[in-house]
Specification:
The complex is a heterodimer of chains A (216) and B (273). Chain A has one domain. In chain A, 12% of the residues lie in helices and 27% in strands. Chain A is built from three helices and ten strands, in the order ββββαββααββββ. Chain A is globular and about 50 Å long. Chain B is built from six helices and twelve strands. Chain B is globular, with a radius of gyration of 20 Å. The mean pLDDT of chain B is 94. In chain B, a hairpin with a 5-residue loop joins strand 5 and strand 6. In chain B, the strands form three sheets. A six-stranded antiparallel beta sheet of chain B has the order 1-12-3-10-6-5. Chain B has a four-stranded antiparallel beta sheet with strand order 2-11-4-7, covered by helices on one side. In chain B, strands 8-9 form a two-stranded antiparallel sheet. With 273 residues, chain B is an alpha+beta fold. Chain B has one domain. The chains are: A alpha+beta (216), B alpha+beta (273). The interface between A and B is large, with 63 and 64 residues. The structure holds zinc ion. The site of zinc ion has 7 residues of chain A, from loops. Zinc ion binds next to loops of chain A. Chain A: InterPro entries: DUF1989, UAAP2. Chain A: Keywords: Plasmid. Chain A: It holds the Pfam family DUF1989. Chain B: Pfam families: DUF1989. Chain B: InterPro entries: DUF1989, UAAP1.
Chain lengths: 216, 273
């Protein structure tokens, strides 16, 4: 595992209130309270981390990639990005980013879309949508609740012509993003198992999630 | 921390296969696709027309659309963006999925010859005609807040509320509203990632024709796009014609133009067998 990087005097590995190791290909979910900071760390580098957020006390309010892109006026996620809900509320704000490139226009991989992209022979490979279905089902939700997500550390350049392709991630071991929650949110992660495109360098790896209480 | 890396041979084999798909997707398909459809649109045979609806600017409409039918969405007299959403009529948990649509076709630029996918790897629509080639699958629609900021003090209607009304009247709810396809919205991305409105403001006479590839519920909203350069709120009516489409030929453009579309239609066949 990479070394811990301290981004604030208040954020040490010892005073994190949650510290999760998420194996390659696995899902995870947890609640981040208003004012808390969540760090999502790409421990070994070049790993896409598919992430969704739901309002903790009303799951019908959830992450909206279109609202987030519209409010940003831009297609990529970075420091200062306000993570928007479908109801037009700010769910979280990105406060730190050591990588500089995150996607929210390409969505999560699925067994079904894999057949279209890579051939029917790829149908029986574990995929993010299956992770999401399993994880949201623990919270009483179903497939209809799975919306277009954020892909932290995934590199999907879109050209002015519209051309779009997934290319090698630029994240290095230990790269991280930090987001401060502006409301209580349920965070649902699929640590992407995709091995048919370079979003994981064709080699899915573990990640780490840390949560700290607010500084004041 | 225990983690076993994949072998360099496995990685190299996967990379080679991806690069082959990528090359075909980025280089081959655009060359095989036609340009925009001619304006004015040709007349639809009266016997084929099932229904024609004029949606006032700022309003909404929804319709059932059966496999083999098509809709012509016609700008008529001027500039209007048409926000579109769709659900599989038999299982509304299957719905239009624009992130997959862009990703599997290697482009956010949708036009004649492209298809629109559901979240289940199946084709919902074939874009069989399109005179503008200027649509937006990224930015979503207007909201009460975005309209209040853009048209202060004016009473306006917005796409978010229109879609909530559509969904609820169909027995669905807010959780069921998918990402929005904005037809007639020339949104393009600068190299740095910022959005701009790169095109003419009026689309008078422009039209799109979408052929249904499964039985669907389709919703429309005719509010101005959030980036519409017109500072005044004055959306125009949009005419939608639902008609019986010609049966696709063996060499149908939308079904054969790309390897991805071919595989998507194979998934449709499995569902419809
Ligand atoms: Zn994935």
């Amino acid at each position: 595992m990479s070394d811990f990087i301290q981004t604030s005097p208040a954020r040490t590995i010892q005073n994190a209130v949650q510290d999760h190791f998420i194996p390659a290909e696995a899902p995870w979910s947890g609640v981040v309270r208003k004012g808390q900071t969540i760090r999502i760390e790409d421990s070994l580098g070049q790993q896409a981390i598919d992430t969704l957020f739901y309002r903790a006390d009303d799951f019908s309010e959830r992450y909206s990639n279109q609202d987030t892109m519209r409010m940003q006026g831009a297609a990529y996620i970075g420091i200062g990005t306000k993570i928007m809900s479908n109801e037009g509320n700010v769910m979280l704000t990105m406060t730190a980013d050591s990588c500089g490139r995150h996607d929210t226009s390409a969505g999560a991989c699925s067994c079904e879309s894999n057949t279209v992209r890579f051939g029917h022979g790829t149908k029986y490979l574990h995929a993010c949508r299956d992770n999401f279905v399993l994880e949201v089902s623990k919270h009483g939700m179903g497939k209809r609740d799975i919306v277009p997500n954020i892909n932290f550390f995934m590199n999907v350049p879109i050209k002015p012509t519209g051309e779009m392709t997934i290319v090698d991630g630029i994240s290095a071991p230990g790269d991280y993003v930090e987001l401060v929650a502006e409301m209580d949110v349920l965070c649902v992660i699929s640590n992407c198992p995709q091995i048919n495109n370079p979003c994981n360098g064709f080699d899915p790896t573990p990640i780490r999630v840390l949560i700290w209480d607010g500084e004041d | 921390m225990m983690h076993v890396r994949r072998s360099p041979e496995e990685i190299a084999a996967n990379r080679a296969r991806y690069e082959e798909h990528q090359k075909k997707g980025l280089e081959f398909a655009p060359k095989t696709l036609p340009g925009p459809s001619p304006v004015p649109a040709s007349a639809i045979a009266a016997a084929a027309i099932i229904h024609q609806e004029t949606i006032p600017g700022g309003w909404y409409w929804s319709t059932k659309l059966l496999r083999g039918e098509a809709i012509r969405i016609d700008q008529g007299e001027g500039n209007s963006t048409v926000a579109l959403v769709a659900w599989n009529a038999e299982d509304t948990s299957e719905r239009i999925n624009l992130v997959d649509t862009a990703k599997v076709q290697w482009t956010t630029a949708l036009g004649k010859g492209r298809v629109i996918f559901s979240d289940m790897g199946r084709v919902m629509f074939s874009i069989i005609e399109d005179s503008s080639g200027a649509h937006d699958c990224l930015m979503g629609g207007s909201t009460a807040a975005s309209n209040a900021a853009k048209y202060p003090g004016e009473k306006t209607r917005n796409t978010r509320d229109n879609l909530i009304i559509i969904a609820v009247k169909l027995g669905l709810d807010r959780r069921d509203i998918p990402g929005i396809l904005n037809l007639f919205a020339p949104v393009r991305l600068a190299e740095a990632g910022g959005f701009g409105w790169q095109g003419k403001r009026s689309n008078s006479g422009d039209y799109v024709e979408l052929r249904a590839e499964m039985d669907m519920l389709v919703g429309f909203s005719t509010c101005p796009h959030p980036l519409d350069p017109d500072p005044a709120y004055q959306p125009k009516p949009v005419v939608i014609t639902r008609y019986k489409a010609a049966a696709p030929a063996a060499d149908d453009l939308c079904r054969t133009a790309t390897a991805e579309a071919v595989r998507g239609f194979e998934n449709n066949t499995l569902m419809q067998a």
